[in-house]
Amino acid sequence: MSILVSGRIFSGFFLLISAIIILGMIELAKKGDLKLHLRRIPALDAIDEAVARATETGKPVLQHGGSAPSAADTIANYSIMNYIARSCARRGTPYVVAARSIQGMPVIREIVSGAYETEGKLEDYDEDRVIRFGSPEQFAFASFFMDTIRSEKPAFTFMAGGLSGEALTLCETAVLEGSIMISGATGQLAVLFASSDYFLIAEELFAAGAYLSGDPRQMASLAGEDYLKMILLALIALGTIFRTFGSQWLLNVVKM
Amino acid sequence: MSVILKRREIPIALTAFFALYMMIAYHSNLPWLSEKAQLTVDIQTFAQILNVMALGLGYIAIMRLHAGYVIRRVKHPQPWHWSLWLLFVLAITTIVGLPWGNFGVRSEPLQFIFSSILLPMRGAMYAVVSFYMASAAYRVFLARNKEAAVMLAGTFVVMLTNAPVGELLGAWVGNLGTWLLTTPSMGGMRGIRICGALGTLILAWRMITGRETGYLRGAAEEGD
Amino acid sequence: MSQSIWTKLSKIDRKYIFLVLWIAVLLPFTVKFALPLTISGLSRDFYDYLDEMPEDSIICYFWDVSFAGWSEMEASGIATLKMLFKLMDEKNCKIILVGMRGDCGPLPELTLKQLGLHPDQNPTYGEMYAHIGWIPGGSVGMSNWCKDIRAVNPNDWWGTPLDELPVMQGINDITDLDLVLQIESGGVGVVINQVVVPYNTPFLAVSIANNVPGNLPLLDSGLMTAQLGGIRGGAELEQLTKEIGVGNVNITAISTTHLAIIALMVIANLTYYARKARGEI
Amino acid sequence: MTLLETITAFTTVFGILCIYSYTYKDNPFWKWATNTLVAGYIGYSACINIDWLYKSILIPMTQKMNVIHLIALLAGLLWYFRFWKKHFYIYRYALAISVGSGIGITIAKTTRSNITAQIASTMLRLYGTGDLMGDFNNIIIVLAVFSTMTYFLFTVEHKGAIGTPIGWISKIGRWMLIITFGVSFGNVINSRMALLIGTVYNLTKPEHSTFFYAIGAIILIYLIGTDLRMREKSEPALTTNEQRVNP
């Protein structure tokens, strides 16, 4: 009887490697030894353009507040919220957040008022106008969000975090009202990709969150994830070569 | 006292302990530290019951929210009399659903609520999306550029594969659709799946080591 | 200036598109007709695996359908259940039904009632099949259930202790089961991770159509043995088991609605290119 | 039909049609339906959880004391500190345990099911399977997985000596993703249509069809009536459907 359970060895080993890489990268980032470039993400560049267009037309910018503040995609949405709120405050563009989560409300308040404060435009910040609470329930919120779109007629709508079956209805309504639609999600990929103008595909959303927040630790874990991906890519390449030349060795190692 | 209890370190330590214990127990085969060890079973039972005990959170939150709407006689986001109706339905469902007297989840009244209100209406609610699907198909599925054209073509073939009417065009439609589904799309999905799993893995390590405390964010819910 | 027909078409009110869909979906329910259906390889594999189950197997059927998903999954849910009960009659297999979420306690009850197998209707309940309630607590709950069924569900759905049901004699944990099925509208992740990965139990999935592409990598890597997808899978299984039911009624409407959507797509593209040619865009 | 069956048929049809009335426009029937549904569902979920606790934990506990169960039940009360402003933070303990055990029980297994098992089944023979189509499919699968994963590399500039080939592969990855999305969009359409068909099947059942036509007609007349009246009041059409301007 061995100490380790067979069939679980390689995945356990990978788990360990991932921990070492990620924590190592975060430590490096803390010391400030990490210089990172992020590849261009078109949807991110589009955010600036979209806010600029909203400023020109004088129409507001609308953002989906995301689901509970514990979800990863909602956390990424918060980083983007900070960014959009700041650029709206700077340009004096009207900005509206439609909040869905009761727990998320205090977090959203903190982020948006903080953004206005950083830009020195706290006098423009009217909480009742900027942050609107709909309903925590999926379709009740969807109908609230659509009402908001119809009454505000935003020039730019951003959605990310906690989107599921109702995402398409929100997207459709926004676009039909003439809004630029940028969204990001880890599910509902096909639907949102098709119906948004720009879409942050799955991991792109997290990368965007890390990039916009400028937090070196988030960037570090992004880089760590990339190293893990490269390890896996190398495994695939090597494994395929081994198999093609008739050796099962690497495959058996991975299946260990 | 409360200053100590308020510290973020306590919940982070709890997260780390439970997560690491479970992970190690899964891989180890020692008699006192394995998946089948008594301690593991106890911890899991504890966690399961704890999860179930969260059942009232959503309930209380909704109740407080709508009670607040009723008390303040609000017009937005919905006129308050709808909130009153919501509270009424909530009360009725709870009264007939709790295990007392002749009531309970298997009693006639709750069976009625389940089979003639919740089941059909929730299905219909989701099906509303299908109308928007039709509208989206009309609006977005334009071969504006190469990307859109390729996507459109893929969707087209798969739709004809899924609907029996596609077979009238010949067997090749079905074969092509199945090939698209099981070869390029399967590869793409696998790539997405691997990257998504890596993302969760990274997030998990950051939570365990206390570098990601987003889930502990949020403040007390403000009652109205 | 009067607008061209293309411009008008491109600005058509959404209500008319909705109307087209309404007509397409109601048509097959008013005018009955059927189209031939070729059985796909994926459904054939699913049927073959179940058909070749050895005698006296113990099969567990996990229910993981939300109320919302049920209107799609009804066809395949009932078809698989009928097939399982046929296995019970012919090959002496034992069938255990269990829900994976709160919604799925009453759903199997409703289905059993439709099939005439509800304990009130069928006195043989408990001998060869049972509905043992549902598993709360998500992944943790599932993992617990796999180690000790009675710790999570000491009673069946109607409150009878499991020890009093003959079918549950000698079934204590997941290793006593020969096959696991799951009908899902919310993903196979929990069963894959908590049942298949640790215990290597053969696993068949009955999936909602939009989860089918995402599940294929799992099928390809052998974690999932076979998959029955959506309403079409249900209709195909009905034909394979020769128990024509709701699936074959609804599949006709799939054809008409898909045709309507395709027609909308074609019109939209024609409009787009016509307007482009006229220099309107 | 008995009285109960009639009432059941009526509520089923009425509920479904109230929701579908939204496809015309927002209206009181829809508001009634959403509020009923939210309340009914939340109440129902709470009840079914309580039922499990009562049946599987509390009743067995009256016969034989189980310390773990008792501790867990008491610890479960920590959740409800969320509503107490002063000692709100205590609720985080319950959350932390729930999140921690969730991570611990899932991550190790996901690593196998979604990472290593997927990598293992991507290690395919690119040549010499004996079947030309099989070779071709294997090449496509490996290429698809490899390029999609490359697309999700963010911290590597897709330019320069190493970057240029990565840029090319990642471009292929984007195309693979687009094909994947096209295919899954086809399945999403199928799925949503099936949901609609399922409910319509329910509506057109013999016991429901009379109600369906009657209630449907009443709601439709109401909607068109209010629509016309509002149009008289305010000239601009209700739904603006202007052609969108591309950004």
Task: Name a few traits of the molecule.
heterotetramer; A: 256 residues; alpha/beta; Rossmann fold; 2 domains; six-stranded parallel beta sheet; 6 strands; 61% helix; elongated; B: 224 residues; mainly alpha; two-stranded antiparallel ribbon; 2 strands; 2% strand; extended
Write structural notes for this entry.
The complex is a heterotetramer of chains A (256), B (224), C (281) and D (247). Chain A is an alpha/beta fold and 256 residues long. Chain A contains eleven helices and six strands. Helices cover 61% and strands 11% of the residues of chain A. In chain A, strands 3-2-1-4-5-6 form a six-stranded parallel β-sheet, with helices on both faces. The two termini of chain A are 16 Å apart. Chain B is mostly helical and 224 residues long. The two termini of chain B are 29 Å apart. The model of chain B has no long low-confidence stretch (mean pLDDT 88). Among the domains of chain B are: 46 residues, no CATH class; 68 residues, no CATH class. Chain C is α/β, with parallel strands linked by helices. Chain C folds into two domains: 54 residues; 204 residues, Rossmann fold. In chain C, strands 3-2-1-4-5-6 form a six-stranded parallel β-sheet, sandwiched between helices. In chain C, strand 4, helix 8 and strand 5 form a beta-alpha-beta unit. Classes of the chains: A alpha/beta (256), B mainly alpha (224), C alpha/beta (281), D mainly alpha (247). At the B-D interface, helix 2, helix 3, helix 4, helix 5 and helix 6 of B face helix 1, helix 2, helix 3, helix 4 and helix 5 of D.
Order of helices and strands of chain B: HHEEHHHHHHH
Percent of residues of chain D in beta strands? under 5%
- Measured by DSSP, the beta-strand proportion of chain B falls in under 5%
Mean pLDDT of chain B: 88
Span of the ends, CA to CA of chain D: 59 Å
User: What oligomeric assembly is this protein in?
Assistant: heterotetramer
Largest sheet of chain D: none
- Secondary structural class of chain B: mainly alpha
What are the segments of chain D in which pLDDT stays under 50 over at least 5 consecutive residues? Answer: 236-247
- What is the helical fraction of chain B, as a range of percent? over 70%
Structural class of chain D: mainly alpha
